[in-house]
Amino acid sequence: MTLKDFSKRVRRRHQRVKVSPFILKNPLLTPIDLSESGIKLFSINELHMDRQINLELKVKDELLELTGQVVWSKASSSESGFYSGLAFINT
After folding, report:
1. CATH number, domain containing residue 45
2. Residue 37 is part of which domain span?
């Protein structure tokens, strides 16, 4: 196992799923993928570290009210905007 493999294994504690069947009720944030512990979002504006964001996420017919804390944010290399990772703090 290389250091790169170990790093991926540590960072990816939960399986990620694409969010096409999910609806995030916030027009400024676009969900990219979702896991048990967090969500990856795309936004035009940068989300600052440690900011808490309240989310309403519709999964099938169930509405989930979640709070996420921004744990990373980086500019997109191909689009005008930012990708951010939020860790859920009230699941």
Report:
1. 2.40.10.220
2. 21-88
Q: Which of 31, 36, 35, 37 is nearest to 16 (CA)?
A: 35
What's the predicted TM-score (pTM) here? 0.71
Main-chain dihedrals φ then ψ at residue 8, nearest 5 degrees: -65, -40
How many residues would you count in the chain?
91
Q: Does 5 reside within a domain?
A: no
- Which residues sit opposite 66 in a β-bridge? 55
The pLDDT tens digits for 12-44 are: 566 655 554 456 667 788 888 888 889 999 999
Distance CA(91)–CA(47), nearest Å, equals: 21
